[in-house]
Design brief:
It is elongated and about 110 Å long. Helix 1 crosses helix 7 (228-295). The longest helix has 68 residues, at 228-295. The protein is 45% helix and 20% strand. The chain is built from 9 helices and 10 strands. The chain is α+β, with helices and mostly antiparallel strands. A 6-stranded mixed beta sheet has the order 2-3-4-7-9-8, with helices on both faces. The protein has helices at 11-18, 21-32, 88-100, 156-161, 180-185, 212-225, 228-295, 300-307, 311-318, and strands at residues 2-6, 35-41, 56-66, 72-82, 105-108, 111-114, 117-123, 134-137, 164-169, 200-204.
Amino acid sequence: MILRVANPIYDSVFKYLVEDLRIAKILISALLKKEVLEVEVRKHEYTNGTRDNISMFRIDFGAKVRESDGSQHLVLIELQKTWLETETLRFRQYLGAQYANPDNIGKEESHEFGIPMVTVYLLGHKVGDIKEPIIYAVHKAYDYYGNEVTEGIPDPFVESLVHDSIIVQIPRLRGRVNNKLEKVLSVFDQTHKDKYNRQMLNIDEDNYEDDTDMMYILRRLLAAASDAKLRQDMNVEDEYFTAIENRDTAIMNRDKKIAEQDQYITEQKNQIAEQNNQIAEHMKTLQATINSLVNRGMSLDEISVVMGKTVEEIKSIIC
């Protein structure tokens, strides 16, 4: 059966989705490829309130994970989602604030250390020519000779200074469901977008009927679709992006016109330069002809008659 659910690419719907801690746990576990025991929303949630140049939704989680060896530890998840192409500087500025946040400092006996952090970027745009929809940028430690250092790693000091990143290119999903994470992220796949209303996705629930976690996510999105406030919030986002698209279209048209004008000016300059070269070559020919006639003993008056020019014009050419 086809379900008509709210589109989580919208900030308002995404927030509604992940503020459900069960769904947050499902998503984070799939992203980290680890067992997540507990999830909590950090006390500060960051969203772009001004919405001047970009839509960027941010939310922070603390996740208690269990490693394959049975050990447990806390990981900070800095999740950022954007519709539009984004300057990496904006991500770096936010990340810098998180490193400086005293709430992200842990304590162990007599010393403090930074809690390990993983940044997750859900992008509504493609990144260069990278074809893979999900990219793991994972740090490692190496010695001087390029050999990986494993003894003593992970270490709190090292983990305090570096972090891993997960980048999801939503436009690259396009029906790919090859693993657990791609299955979870399939509810973001914009190929399911309703033909007449981009606020809605048409999802075939039969593809998920054997997965209780995915059915729970679909039910949450189904509830979002019938929420009047969320629909209004999506309308506001649409108005904002329509304004952005109109602005970008106007800028694109302006830039195109300027480029065409620049090309026309360049062509005119090239034509003028070519004409000047032709005139210069013609003058050289005239000078050579006049000098040849002078060398034959002809007077300027005689040359003017032969060439059909006044004496003054002949003098100017010679000069």
